[in-house]
């Protein structure tokens, strides 16, 4: 059984293929960077994976199933996608308590995850008064509430300052060390180079490389590899 698998995934919007025949398997217990420039099709692929977009053809499966077929998905897959909705006028803790209640998760677990993302001090603050970095941490807290084995994160580093990025890196590594499978997208190649074990690189909806970061980048940087791999394609 694979943790996450794209199989000839196509997502067409009108005449444009946002994702064009993407096949890739994500290895369990590792951090996989899902990389590519703006508009490459990363978010669309991840949205297909969690049932927010319907594939035109092919499939995107979690644990060999469609997301909507998973029982109590919060305990199997944690997601951070831009569409995630929290109530701005409620506190961070209250927001998490609402999500927790919907999945039969205890309030004590809410306090535990707030501690894990280092938001305990700000737990009672209204979410609308959170900084961007605090909102990202709250989203991550929501993703790990059900202690899932799989995390799917769309640009979780967006808006984080260097300290926040370093924190996120440590956080993801700690999760992977617990055996969790993490798929994390980013258009910031340099930043991901030190974070991930494996990479899937896409451009214009198509796969251009996948494998361990060592195998894909060789001697240079991830940016070098990306430019080399897309040379002539643009
Ligand atoms: N709902 C939609 N309707 C029409 N076109 C869409 C829709 N969602 C995405 N697209 C198009 O699909 C392409 C891929 O977009 P997507 O958001 O998946 O890229 P991305 O890799 O996540 O980019 P970014 O790094 O900017 O987040 C883009 O050309 C975008 O305009
Ligand atoms: Mg995106």
TrEMBL record:
It holds the Pfam family ABC_tran. Keywords: ATP-binding, Nucleotide-binding, Transport. GO terms for molecular function: ATP binding; ATP hydrolysis activity. InterPro entries: AAA+_ATPase (IPR003593), ABC_transporter-like_ATP-bd (IPR003439), ABC_transporter-like_CS (IPR017871), P-loop_NTPase (IPR027417). PROSITE patterns: ABC_TRANSPORTER_1, ABC_TRANSPORTER_2. Residues 4-229 form the ABC transporter domain. The keyword Transport applies. Transmembrane segments: none annotated. Belongs to the ABC transporter superfamily. This is Unannotated protein.
